[in-house]
């Protein structure tokens, strides 16, 4: 048989599945990101391109964490941690689709901040609603194309056993180690596809923020404080997401045990922390959330009365 029917996913490590389960169950990022989406959609004040992109980032985070988290929770509750081959490939596609889309949206958000700070007089003419929509669509299309490449080159490999991967979700590197063929060329394609996208976007982000920091010297102290507060949130998310991503995909396939823990950062930790980072450092979002909560309480009170 060239392709196995099932893939047996091993545990995270002895005694480490329990804290991961607790993290996923009690720190589910879906609620926080969904709250951000609802706040931005319902608020008339959060209508700038920055919040437009933030709503899509939060939506992608919901989809991204949903690809792996439910299966990990289900695996913790069962003795045999099994996923079908088709389910494994679907998970591989979803991880790279939403992950790459998030990379592109974070890059677009950096471009938005660059235009807002370095070219404020041209901001409204450059960052129109149509342009922002086109950027989001391009991000989704780019993520789809990237994921299709990763998925197709993986499914073309012959699999004839063993069918056990030492990871908590199906990814390219663990699957390459199961192939019954020389995967050197495929590994190079994976590095060129995933690694270079992550590294290239990360370098672009670093350059853009260097330019932003230099341009802030001519701004007033109040303008610098506001700009640094906004950019600081974005920089924190970029470091948390791009660091582990680049570490994983910029090098060839390996058997490093650290890969599982590193993967937790960009599949679980970052989507969970994004709502906290963007709300705790942003007074406009917090104010809009309070107004949304007040309207909800008032409407509930009227319905009861």
From TrEMBL:
Name of a matching Pfam family: 7tm_4
Transmembrane segments: 26-43, 82-111, 131-149, 184-216, 228-250, 262-280
Record's subcellular location: Cell membrane; Membrane
Domain G-protein coupled receptors family 1 profile positions: 32-278
GO molecular function, one term: olfactory receptor activity
Predominant location category: membrane
PANTHER family (UniProt xref): OLFACTORY RECEPTOR
Family recorded in the similarity comment: Belongs to the G-protein coupled receptor 1 family.
UniProt name for this protein: Olfactory receptor
Organism: Chrysemys picta bellii
